[in-house]
Amino acid sequence: IMPYTKMCTNVQEMVIKSGTRQEQAAEMSASGQNWSTQTYTLTLEPTDGTGDGRGDNIGATGEPCFKVDHSAVIMYPGNLTLPKHYEIKGEENFQGPISYAIMNDFDYNETTGKRIGILGHGAFAVENLRTCLEYSSKQVYMICRRKNLSCPRVVSWFINQSVNPLSGPLTMRSMMPAYNLIGFDPWSYYAVHANEKRTTVTITQKSRFGIGDVYFLAVSMGICEVIEDEIKRVSTSSIHLESGRRVEVDVILKLYGFNGNFDVDRLMNVKSMSGFWVDEDFRRYLIAEPIGVNATNFGGTSFSPGVRVWVDYVAHFLWYPKDWAYLRDCGLLPKHSAEEEIDRPAYVIDARHGTQTSMAIGSTTPAIGESQMNLNFVKRQKQLECHPTRKFLQECSEEWMAYGQKFKVLGAPRECPPYPYTLKIVEELLAANEEEAALKAARG
User: Fold this and answer.
1) Rounded Cα distance, 362 and 364, in Å
2) Which letter does DSSP use for residue 206 in this model?
3) Across residues 182-192, what is the average pLDDT?
4) Which residues have C-beta within 8 Å of that of residue 264, sequence separation ≥ 6?
5) Most-buried pick from 1, 109, 151, 299 (CB within 10 A)?
6) CB-based contacts of 210, cutoff 8 Å, min separation 6
7) How many other CB atoms are found less than 10 A from the CB of residue 291?
């Protein structure tokens, strides 16, 4: 494959080559196919690998560009590339560093021994909490308008080892040992939609789950405080909240999430996404991980199982293009065009769009369903090979205690509590998942 692989190369432009509409119609009529010949000319620019992807900073070597024709274009750009910018009144008066903490813009050594204001409560904010404490911050304040659900390590493991996806109620139940520890009620979060008896649950939030135990430990020991409030302004060494509270900090990290890059839409000539395909063209496949959470059942929190499925999707229709018409014309594929008013390119789709696309493919393309019918068993096998239950639980507990000791040295006001998950709790959750699967099978 290496002779066909171009590393350190920037794709500068894509030009679609096709016949006129009349020529395309004549070709399809003569061939009996539902597609016509089309190629894609890519202009490629050599780079030295030093660019960081911002603007024109691509590390171009100055060598001549060259063009190559392709019969299909597949792009996995990632959509969490540009931080959401938000200016706070009085920022210019703040005497410490203010950063979006992305693309090596921030030196975390500046957090050592300092009081940190993390603005936001999404996955990136939760990850930065851990990083700041690993760099021995004195105290962290997470300031947000509303809290998002975070996912303890055991719950992530529980979901990823499941053959049968966890129901919403069981997912919430599995989170409770961690949430009980910090005194937060996740059932009251904006993202959780349940019936009165809590027998059905849908979780809908704009941020993906922040996964890890450090968040729960830091809050329980008091070295992190979560504050739900609006920010009024910033002064020389404080964040002033609408409630009237003044929070003294030395560093501010603005972690409001990310936007996609409109350059991706321009490169792929996107007018509208149909599922994961550009403009109903099965030869242009464009997918970044769908944003947010929107689900009633949970079968994975990691990236790789989804990638395995996405590769199947594009390959199938390139190998069997006659199947494309069934999917294209089924009326089930969700559409998404650019939403410039909220700075969201067309290719940045949400979790519901991703789920609906997978359902449409499964209902119209039996061959894909057959090829993927055992993937959940493979997923479970891989997860348990890498993370056997008892060993994983022991590692989680040992890491918890190690962080707890560190936080105490840093001046945490409360003692390190025992790890909230025991083998008994995990075994009960596993049994509950099996019981759910049995009841579902009995109902047919």
Assistant:
1) 6
2) S
3) 97
4) 75, 77, 270, 286, 345, 347
5) 151
6) 122, 123, 124, 125, 126, 127, 148, 150, 151
7) 22
